[in-house]
Amino acid sequence: MEVIRVNCLGGCGTVTYFTFQTEAKDPDGGEMERRQGHHHHHHLLLLLLLTAGSLKVDGSQDRAVDGGVDVDTIRHSLVLVQHLETLLLQGNGSDVTLRVETPGTDEVRTIQTHSLLLSLQSSVFQEMLLRRNDSTLHLKESADCAAVFHGFIRYLYCGHVPLSLDQAVPLHRLASKYQVLSLQQGVTQYMILNLARDSPSGHVVGWYEYAVQAGDRTLRDSCLQHLAWNMTEVLLSGEWSTMSSQLLMSLLPRSDLVVQSEMELFVGLEAWIIQNDPDGLMVENALRAVRYAMMPPQELFRLQTQSPVLTRYQESVRDLLYLSYQFHSTSPLLMAKYFDVNCSLFVPRNYLSRMWGSPWTISSPSRDDRSTSFQTQLGPSSYHSNKRVSWNALFSPRWQPISMKPTYMEVGAMQPSGQEGGRPRIIVTPATSSTDSAGVTFQKTVLVMSRQQRKLVVKHVYDFHQSSEENVDFLTEADLNQHSSEYLLNGSLYLHVVVKPMYHTLITDKN
């Protein structure tokens, strides 16, 4: 006779002893079924202890107060996790076989599992087990899901699973299908954190398409934002040509696209159209999303005479080209009297070209104030092609607004601030005043880079008119003190300041 004792510390400091007995197998095998049943229940007890959340992986002692009594808890759940992994690998005490088939192939995978654990982790498995007629569940999975199915089941037993970029979608699909919420959320987070990771053929576009199909809005929006804020990189990647029409039309209208220039975006769009050969209506809608007024007249003229796509579809955008030429031939003040200059055609995107702003590398950004100066063209209109505006930018790592500054209740007594030490702030102001900018306001945009997977990507985009104080969350989550911070590369903070002229339609007297 074998006696197995599992000690579990109760909530009030008492110890509960669970005792199970298993009989030795007789030569005729008459006791085999009884022994297997007891052995199975022993392992199920371990499963219940683990899923109850009373055990911890680190093997440490914790002290807590429960009902006024000090309670010590010994935690050794790592051992239990190892037992569970062995249980899965060896199939001991298994009472259900998962038979995983891939339609259209002869490939079959079988896994010995335990019905109690499957039911605890998945309501879908629970329902399937209630309806089963025998000890085998027949499951049909696509080839990519079948390839990671054992890892999926391993997660149900151990709470962890190895994961690579190409396994993310099938694991997420399995977690969604079998309603394992913790794994579904974990894979979503993994995908969001690895959008910038290098892969041979790219993965963000594929993840976006999957997120739309799966209805995962968090993942969908994160993919879309990453593509928009790193569009220059995307245009040069193999992923660009694989985009669906739907994804392309989700990106083109956005004003927060980060590109070198509007011409760069048009060249990429033309290449996409030539390679994918979409229907005419799709091409017309895509071409009308281009902001031709942001291109110099000489570039527009070259497009009209040399672009095969624009030559074919010129009638679809003739009105936009005409407006763009007018925009370049007169002052914005005069233009605003007769046309709606608030439409997207006249709204700049986040252009990286020197005409629109300047990169700014701030060394040791947590120490002292830093400043820089740069120039931009007064506006994208050729009417202002020879006019420049000089800008001064000031970065303060520990600025405090008046409302946050310490107040003194009495001599020598200081009331501490809510945010001791202040927060980062950027102010961008013109070096000289000018009357040429009548009818125009300047929006400042700061692109904040972060280090992800050994390369710089745009992490945040902040818009303001003069000071980043207008954004209450400006760099609030950035750790500028630690050299290992994702916001620092070799101890420096990498920014790019963009100045965007915004035009306003003037109300005129019709009399």
Question: Which parts are unreliable, with pLDDT below 50 for 5 consecutive residues or more?
Answer: 1-43, 45-59, 407-420
| Strand content bin | 25-35%
Instruction: Return the average pLDDT rounded to an integer.
Output: 81
Summing up helix and strand content along with how strands pair, one would put the structural category as alpha+beta
Indicate the percent of residues in helices.
25-40%
Counting H and I runs of at least 4 residues, what is the number of helices? Answer: 18
Q: Largest sheet, if any?
A: 5 strands, antiparallel
Q: Termini distance?
A: 107 Å
User: What's the number of extended β-strand segments?
Assistant: 19
Radius of gyration from CA coordinates: 32 Å
Overall shape = flat
Question: Would you mind describing this structure in some detail?
Answer:
- The protein has 511 residues and is an alpha+beta fold.
- It is 36% helix and 25% strand.
- The protein is built from 18 helices and 19 strands.
- Strand 1 and strand 2 form a beta hairpin.
- Helix 1 packs across helix 2 and helix 8 packs parallel to helix 10.
- It is flat.
- The N and C termini lie far apart (107 Å).
Descriptors:
511 residues; disordered N terminus; alpha+beta
